[in-house]
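Researcher: Predict the fold of Filamentous hemagglutinin-like protein.
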Amino acid sequence: MAALFDANGTYTGGTVKLNNAWVPAPFSGLRSQLTAYRLVNTVADLQNVSNNLAGTYALGKDIDFSGSSAAFSGVGGATNAAFTGQFDGMGHAIRNVNLQVAADSQTYLALFGVIGTRGVVRNLGVENAYANGWYSGPVAILAGLNQGLISYSHSSGTSSQSWDGSGSAGLVARNDGTIQRSSSTASVFGMDAVGGLAVINNGLIVQSFRGRQYRRRVALLCGRSRCHQQWDNHAILFDRQRIGGLRRRHCGQQFRYDQRILLHVALQSEFVPAGWRRYCAQ
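Model: Structure tokens for Filamentous hemagglutinin-like protein follow.
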């Protein structure tokens, strides 16, 4: 159940009877049975989310940055203050955003610099975005660092890092939380490691996929830890020296390709649209 109000308005709460036995549906990303959302309808509304990073927001409609000449440094700004609230895209998309760092000290570049441990981003599309990091920090389209929950979200566009730094990714640069039922079709370029969903994964990625082309060192889906039901939709060939099973530095660890097969993956030699063709099992 949701209550919606404009970003420049207020509301007076009434009385609602809730089900004490309520539990959220799997993968929904919901935190409560009744949620009051502040609507985000404009570029200015989105920029103002940084003024209350613990708030609960919903996109009231698609937002298009095409008419905005200024670059956006992301929610949390140059300090990468963590977003600890809830952001529900309601199936809408943020389009044509130009993501650029605001200062050399900015650690992460993405629409959300950091999603904190209590933060939730769900049902959100970030489409035809351009994230360009000319510094050494990680670059991604949706989140630089995710410590919370990302659910039913997707990204497209270009994620690029111009210098030899911490890598670039289509969805999340570093995942220490949970990503579920999400995807990226972004083109990813970088002088260092690049990843379809995430460059580094220390958390959980569930039923998510990527499908585009990458340049330089590749982390196809995720890094170490738990990766369940991932899909790789595009064939790619890269320098053998820089390709790991899911990430080179973690070769030899166990990764789950689906819920039936558990592999010890070493050096990948070839990838095909259906997944991988050859691997070296230990």
